[in-house]
Specification:
alpha/beta; Rossmann fold; 7-stranded antiparallel β-sheet; binds adenosine-2'-5'-diphosphate; 5-stranded parallel β-sheet; single chain
């Protein structure tokens, strides 16, 4: 991982509308990076929500500057004084082809209007909470996993993360390690047999300790026997899903077949889904 960190907070020039200053950039692989920015003093959000962020671009027709924005899940918890984002790099992607080059001190645009369905309010109370992620879909869960409410509300929290290659799991692996060594969160999670947080990473195109798509591992029952938990049931299990479109659709079907129903802010049920951002 290459980390570029601001040594001193750059002076804010506020040249952009809703400008925030980049404080740290980490490059995880040639396809993935994460970055942190200053947080607007007035911004309140619920862990799991997303905001629109981006850069200015020149309109090809008029030659005028206008914002180019995309939805990004906030990966940091709501108590953090900075905001963290986790992004793919698409070489011909309109935004990420440029965003991947940001450095500490640079400004990005951040519209301070958080929204989203991957929030505790959209789920009915339950015993076990599953976070199912592929690729950068882990971002909203990076927020929720660092939110003490997650461990207050559930007896058990399980994060599954499926990526093509082993290197793409590093952001999540570091996240889990940091949570387990955080004094406050570690106390909420507990130890040994009573540990509340479980982590189940898998890869599909490169060798790693656990291979396969999580959807296949659920259908075969392997994930449940590996973790020593009962298959999903609407009485005990709640789920949040965030990944690519095909994955979201497939896992929705599996959850529905288990008797879980999709919830929303206005109508909490047993699971919620959101599409991970792809430039
Ligand atoms: P696979 O390598 O078999 O396509 P991507 O980088 O394309 O967004 O994919 C991220 C991860 O999601 C990959 O490991 C990919 O597996 C997996 N994936 C893609 N489609 C599905 C699906 N329909 N169900 C489960 N996993 C999927």
């Amino acid at each position: 991982t290459t980390v570029t960190q601001a040594t001193a907070k750059a002076p804010k020039t506020l040249t952009l509308p809703d400008a925030q200053t980049v404080t740290e950039v980490k490059h995880w692989t040639d396809r993935l990076f994460s970055f942190r920015v200053t947080r607007p003093a007035s911004l309140r959000f619920r862990s799991g929500e997303f905001v629109m962020i981006g850069l200015m671009q020149t309109d090809a027709k008029t030659g005028k500057q206008k914002p180019l924005l995309r939805a990004y899940s906030i990966a940091s918890p709501s108590w953090d004084d900075e905001l963290e984002f986790y992004s793919i790099k698409v070489q011909d992607g309109p935004l990420t082809s440029r965003l991947q080059h940001i450095r500490p001190g640079d400004e990005i645009i951040l519209r301070p209007k958080p929204v989203g369905t991957l929030v505790h309010d959209a789920l009915l109370p339950g015993r076990r909470l599953w976070f199912f992620a592929t690729g950068t879909g882990i971002a909203p869960f990076a927020s929720l996993l660092r939110d003490p409410q997650t461990y207050a509300d559930y007896d058990e929290v399980i994060l599954t993360h499926t990526c093509r290659e082993a290197g793409e799991l590093q952001y999540g692996a570091d996240l889990i390690e940091n949570i387990r060594s955080d004094e406050l969160l570690a106390e909420l999670i507990g130890e040994g047999f009573h540990k509340k947080l479980r982590y189940y990473p898998t890869t599909t195109r490169e060798q790693s300790p656990k291979m396969g798509r999580i959807t296949d591992l659920m259908r075969s029952g392997e994930v449940f026997s590996d973790l020593g938990v009962a298959p999903l049931s609407p009485e005990t299990d709640r789920a949040m899903v965030c990944g690519n479109l095909a994955f979201n659709l497939e896992i929705k079907q599996i959850l529905e077949d288990c008797g879980l129903h999709e919830g929303a802010n206005s109508d909490p049920r047993e699971y919620v889904v959101e599409k991970a951002f792809l430039d």
